[in-house]
Amino acid sequence: MAKKKKRNTLVVLLAMLVVVCGVYFGVSKYSEAQMNEETQAEEESIPMIQMDDVVAVSYDNETASLSFEKREDEWICLEQEDFPLIQNRINSIANAMKDMSANRKLDDTTDLSQFGLDQVTKTVTAEDSEGNTKTLKIGNVNEYTGDYYAMVEGDDTIYTIADSIVNYTDYTLDDLLQLDTVISVTSAQATSVTVEKNGTQVKFVKKEVEAETEAETEAEAETTEETVSETEEGTETESTEAETQQVWFEVTDSGETQLEDETDLNIAINSVGSASVASCVNYKVEGDDRAQYGLDEASETVITVEFATEEEEGSSILHVGNLDDSGNYYYVGVGDSKAVNLIEKDSLENMLAYISES
């Protein structure tokens, strides 16, 4: 009886081993097949559009119709030629159209409506340096793969393509606006700070002076006496170069005064130097129109921070106007830009408060 039980147990174990081996073999084969399929798909990407260097692109979507042309290696919007474009976004469209591959090529394409290609709402057109043009028609998205159905104008073949070109051409013109950049400056890099408003100026400069500690001051008389004594005895003395440090001075018509406490000024410089443009109210405002933002000469406060690093020297200039309606942002012009931007109040408040107390 015991032998029979052992025999049955052995049979069961052998059967389980066979099942496990079969499952393992099946999973291995499935994984291998999946890898082969993915590798084959990558190797068999289907050429759709090949062009020379693209020099013009345009697109239509449900909210915008825009055209761009490259002039002297810079993209220009033909609808507003002075509009400051984010160049990389237009480059992305041009590069995608220059060499586009499809993921799949469909065989049954008799009914365009099932692919959203009977009444197309999005098209992208590119022109290369040889004058050749290609227009891509984009239809519905495949909900399972995330790819889009697409056709090239003049070709009845339907392809599926990745969503990258769709995302690149979803932008309105406002989405393509290149915001002004505030130069990043720290208090350690700053060499001078000037704040001007309506003819009144407050200025601070950083200078290098000889460093002197309390211990050196107390020992100065004793050291001098010993040096004189040693010199009289014919002992040679060594001349050492004095250590220096950089300190801030306030500059007025009557002269320069060293600051007793530099903490608040350094905090103010760091705040201004780390400021960034939150958004642009209008990319081009000139003349009297700037007064509504407090950015005319009579109203604005001009903050100039000069700086020096191992790589460069320069200045960061901000024209600060009124607070916006929310009270959280200042209207600001950056350098000589004609744009009116919004910068957070906290970034500039330390400097404005410090100057008002000086």
What this model shows, in words?
Helix content is 28%, strand content 34%. It has 358 residues and is of the alpha+beta class. It folds into 2 domains: 48-176, Sandwich (Immunoglobulin-like); 190-212 and 243-357, Immunoglobulin-like. Strand 3 and strand 4 form a beta hairpin. Helix 5 packs antiparallel against helix 6 (345-357). The longest helix is centred in the N-terminal third of the chain and has 42 residues, at 2-43. The radius of gyration is 36 Å and the shape is elongated. Residues 1-7, 18-43 and 234-239 have low confidence and may be disordered.
Structural topology:
Elements: H1 2-43, E1 46-50, E2 54-60, E3 65-71, E4 74-77, H2 87-98, E5 99-102, E6 104-105, E7 122-128, E8 133-141, E9 148-152, E10 159-161, H3 164-168, E11 190-197, E12 200-210, H4 214-232, E13 244-252, E14 255-258, H5 263-273, E15 277-282, E16 301-308, E17 313-323, E18 329-334, E19 340-344, H6 345-357
Antiparallel strand pairs: 1-5, 2-3, 2-7, 3-4, 6-10, 7-8, 8-9, 9-10, 11-12, 11-16, 12-13, 13-14, 15-19, 16-17, 17-18, 18-19
